[in-house]
Amino acid sequence: MPSDFAVAKRRLRLLGLTGDDAIKAFFGGNALVSVVVLLLITIFLFREGVGFFGQNRQNLAIYRQAGLEYVEFIRAQQADHIALTRSLADLRLRYLTCLTEERQMTLAAANEALAGFDDYAGKFSDTVEPLRGLATELTEMATAIKTKFLVTQDQKEARRQLLAEGKSAEAAKVKIDEVDFATELKPLVGTLPVYRDLNREFARRLVEVAAAAPALPTADLRDRMTRLQQHVRDYVAGFPAIETRLAKWDHRRPVPWWESFTAFVFGRAWLTASFWQDWYGILPLLAGSVLVSMVALMIAVPLGVGAAVYVNQIAGVREQKFIKPGIEFIAAFPSVVLGFFGIAVLGQILRAVSQLPGLSWVPGFPYSERLNVLTAGCLLALIAVPTIFTLAEDALNNVPRAFKEASFALGASRLQTITRIVVPASLSGIVSAVLLGLGRVIGETMVVLLCAGNRIAIPDFSSGLGVVTQPVHTMTGIIAQEMGEVVRGSIHYRALFVVGLVLFLLSLAINYAAQTIVRRYRISIG
């Protein structure tokens, strides 16, 4: 009785196929499946995300037509005053520190000495009250117009659904109250003369209060107060420009198509479910992803490449059998377990270390947020090390042995051979390993979701290296956090798909660059 192998071979011969043809068909079919899956993912992301820009344009149009954009000018002016008040509060804290630490005053005595400064700060804060009252009133008017428009849209959708179901009689009963934006906005824009009067009084009082600053005991505090007073003068100098923008504002001005795109690509806010206005800007998420990935690479590249060089060029057989499996075993850890480790252990340890007196010179130390860029970056580095180590070692293995033998024959030491011959010869392969490690960490979800802090804001890069101690949010984290809560087909739903598309294209570009370098490396070696 013929064996199964003989039967299969006979069937292939009847089909006109050899064994090599069958093997080529099998692996070629796998490659084709991979291409088809990649194409389907791309089509799916484009299909679900492309509608976002049209919806975002409508979102921006409602923002303008309902008068929210008009009120935003005044709200931004109010927010700038709040920023000045925060600077004054920071100055008070420094003043208090000076009294308690340098002059050895008790806390109660220091607060009593600060009574004059507190009175000054209170007057400074109160100067914006009339403007705040007007902004609150205009905010209520604008949100009422927007709500009325949204109700109208719901009525139209209800009628459309009834007509689609063939219920014409019930659809006719749905009353639609069309919104006349020009009429609705008259009371809002009619407050411009009132705003101008309030603005003049606000500017006068603010300059007057700022000039009456109390005397401060140290040169540093006096310099800070002088800078604050200059900021106040610059702030007041911008009031005429705000009045001009309000006077020229027109709710009928159309929103161009490109504004929907630029609002997403260059938007500095990701704000959803807001009573005021939803914003979908990718910059804070992109900045968070890149910052965490860079911290991870700064840690993982020396460890991964260094370990690869040591194992491949220096370590003995016993060391290789111990080190290689140990490093590669790290890849078996589930990322969610690493995330829990970061929350429960690593974040606490790093925060405790940052508060050591001897490390106060380190930028950003001490810090209070245990979940931040540094915590997430350390864990992502742990994830990236096996990838970088394995690929870098493969690159070192591919260096021709003749290179090392020629170096030794010329009298070079082992260290000289490694640093000047082996590593430079495998540099392109090591670079591709680093790029693939970057692609690995930038697409990681659970670790950054659990350990990065999830604060949606562009990090304060003015703090220098201390920026790594700030909490951030990432593109992968926002998708995992919000996708389960959004309504299918909504603007928020499609915005998340566009974020996924950006992440997908970014990862694809990184992997393509790595593969290109690998191909060139192999050609040069060959």
Briefly summarize what is shown.
The chain is an all-alpha fold and 526 residues long.
Features:
mainly alpha, 526 residues, two-stranded antiparallel ribbon, 3 domains, flat
What can you see in these coordinates?
With 526 residues, the protein is mainly alpha-helical. The protein folds into 3 domains: 4-49; 67-250, no CATH class; 295-525, Orthogonal Bundle (MetI-like fold). It is 75% helix and 1% strand. The protein contains 23 helices and 2 strands. It has helices at 4-14, 19-49, 51-65, 68-102, 107-113, 115-126, 129-164, 168-173, 181-189, 192-211, 219-237, 239-248, 257-265, 283-314, 317-329, 335-354, 373-397, 401-409, 414-425, 427-442, 446-451, 475-482, 491-525, and strands at 270-271, 279-280. A two-stranded antiparallel ribbon has the order 1-2. A hairpin with a 7-residue loop joins β1 and β2 (279-280). α3 crosses α13 (257-265). The radius of gyration is 32 Å and the shape is flat. It starts with a helix and ends with a helix. The relative contact order is 0.09. The mean pLDDT is 88.
Backbone shape: flat
| CATH architectural designation of the largest domain | Orthogonal Bundle
**How many separate domains?**
3
Number of helices: 23
Q: CATH topology of the largest domain, what is it called? A: MetI-like fold
Question: Could you tell me the strand content as a percent range?
Answer: under 5%
How far from one another are the termini?
Answer: 49 Å
Helix content: over 70%
Uncertain segments are: none
Global mean pLDDT? 88
